[in-house]
Specification:
The protein has 5 helices and no strands. By secondary structure, the protein is mainly alpha-helical.
């Protein structure tokens, strides 16, 4: 009696590139480290990279939510004529916590999309 070993099914769908993963980790570090304005660059890398190369909708939604959570205090800071000299000093702590939380959601969805198998399109 011959037995055949079944190989695991290949992971269909595109995985997140390494720069997207690294940038998603850099966002909360920069916001907590009082470099909120510079954190705009990793936010854009995560947003564009995830929308261009990841098929998982949860990752796309999480990155969009991160971009919106970052854009709100940025627009408020830019529109305010008497704002502080830096975005980090002008940002309300609730917005900082919201950005860190949505970044954690992006990291979690990236990890989940990497480990689960997606159906082929």
């Amino acid at each position: 009696m011959a037995t055949t070993a079944e190989s695991p099914q290949p992971h269909t769908g595109r995985r997140a590139p390494l720069p997207v993963t690294v940038a998603s980790w850099a966002v909360p570090v920069m916001v907590v480290g009082q470099f909120a304005l510079i954190a705009g660059l990793p936010v854009m890398i995560v947003l564009v990279g995830a929308h261009r190369s990841v098929r998982d909708r949860a990752v796309r939604w999480a990155t969009t939510l991160l971009a919106v959570a970052y854009a709100v205090p940025l627009v408020v800071w830019l529109a305010r004529p008497d704002g502080a000299q830096s975005l980090s000093k002008d940002m309300h702590p609730v917005f900082a916590a919201l950005i860190v939380a949505t970044s954690a959601a992006v990291i979690a969805t990236l990890h989940r999309s990497r480990t689960r198998r997606l159906p082929a399109r």
